[in-house]
Each structure stands twice: as structure tokens, then as C-alpha cells.
Amino acid sequence: HCPGLANLIGYSYFLTHFTQYTYSLLIIVIIMIALEMIIAKDLARCQELFKLYLHTALTAIVLACFFPSRGAMDRYADAPTRLKFDPDSGTAFIKQLLELRSGDPLVVDPIHLSGLAEFPSFHTAAAVIIVYACRSNLIRMAFGSAFAADMIAGTPIYGGHYLVDLISGAFLAMTFIIVWHRLNATRRSREMALKPAICFKSD
Predict the structure, then answer these.
(1) In whole angstroms, what separates CA 32 from the centre of its chain?
(2) CA-CA distance, 48 to 183, in Å (whole number)?
(3) What are the DSSP calls for 60-106, one per residue?
(4) Residue 166: how many CB atoms within 10 A of its CB?
(5) What secondary structure letter does DSSP report for 119?
(6) What is the DSSP string of 153-186?
(7) Beta carbons within 10 angstroms of residue 164's beta carbon
(8) How far apart are the first and last CA of the chain?
(9) Non-local CB neighbours of 90 within 8 Å, separated by 6+ positions
(10) What is the pLDDT along the chain (203 residues), one digit of tens a residue?
(11) What is the CA radius of gyration of the chain?
């Protein structure tokens, strides 16, 4: 699927650069959405967005440590396909990965570190979380869905992810969403159960 998608996006100069921007601007877009939620006084959704984002990110980082990979762009994309994108698209981390596997002494340069996370795809997980957190506002939902769809389209190319990485990222996000929803439902049930007792005590 990666070469076909890469060729499809690579035919358009606009799509090539637009998907690259959406993929690389994830954190900035998260902050923009959160600020809009704060301005709109939708603090519950803002809290939901940040908590789901942080918990999913930490889990994805831990899981990725056990599944290193050279990535789909390195494995499947041929030279003509790669020429349509930046030289390091989906492969920027490979040099560091090979150095880690070599067993030779390493020099860690924090300024030039590249992400090594392949499985699961955190960008896909973040896209699902964005759409879910934006569900209460039509304009916000339209923006979040468009951004999420484009970011997922660019994930195999600029993140070097396989299809299974995207599926697992979506599954991870949905798992946290279900847990979050159930925890909130339990909390609301407890608050409702305590209300009669509080009212009786105040009388």
C-alpha cells in the first residue's frame, strides 16, 4: 500500500507538501485546538484532549521500544518514488537504528535525534483522538477531521509506517477513549449517588 499511496500523493506538488506539513505540525495543531476550546469555554473537551493525548503518547513510546523497524518507505518505495519527496521522508531514523543495532559505541546528539517509533503509529492515534475530542462542535469537527485524514494519509510516507502500524495506532486510541468514557460514566454515577445524601445532610 505504501508505494501506491506515495505515488498518488507524489503526483501533486500541493498534496506532497500539505501532507508533510500536517504530519510535522501535530503538536502545534493540538495546541491550536486546545486554545480554541479554552476560548470557547469548552474546558471539559480540552481536558479530555490533553489527557488522551498524553496517555496515548506515553503508551505508544513504551510499545515502540519492543518493535523497531526500518519502515515502509525504506522497504517498499523505489528510487523514482522517493525522488518525489524529501530525501529523508520516512527514512530519517534508519541511520540511528542501524547504529543502535551495530553494537558499536554511540555518540548521542540530542539536537539531531530522530524518532524511532514505528509500531504503533502515534500520529494515527492522535488523529483519532483529535476527531473524538472535536465532536461537540461542528466547525471544530470539520477542521479536526480534515486535518486527521490528511495526517493519516501522510503517515506511511513521512513516518515510514506499515498498515499494521496505522491499525494498531487507531486501536490504541480507541482503547483509551473507551476507558476514558467508562471512567467518566463511573464518576458521574458516583456523583449522582452522593447527591441525595448531601442534600439530606444539608437539611
Answers:
(1) 15
(2) 12
(3) HHHHHTT-----HHHHH--HHHHTTS-TTTTTTTHHHHHHHHH-S--
(4) 22
(5) S
(6) HHHHHHS---HHHHHHHHHHHHHHHHHHHHHHHH
(7) 14
(8) 67
(9) 71, 72, 73, 74, 77, 156, 157, 158, 159, 160, 161
(10) 566 777 777 777 788 888 888 988 999 999 999 999 999 999 999 999 999 999 999 999 899 888 877 777 777 777 777 778 877 777 777 677 767 677 777 666 656 656 656 789 999 999 999 999 999 899 999 999 999 999 998 888 888 888 899 999 999 999 999 999 888 888 777 777 766 654 545 44
(11) 20
Residues ≥6 apart with Cβ < 8 Å to 4: none
- Rounded CA separation 174/136 (Å): 17
Cell of 107: 555518540
Grid cell, residue 24, equals 510535522
Report how far residue 178's alpha carbon sits from residue 158's, in angstroms, rounded to the nearest whole number: 29
Q: Cell numbers at residue 143, please?
A: 477542521
Nearest to 70, CA basis, from 99, 88, 92, 94:
94
Half-sphere exposure of 107 (CA within 13 A, CB side): 3
d(CA 135, CA 14): 28
The continuous run of DSSP H or E covering 23 comes out as: helix 13-24
Predicted structure pTM score: 0.80
Amino acid letter, residue 2:
C
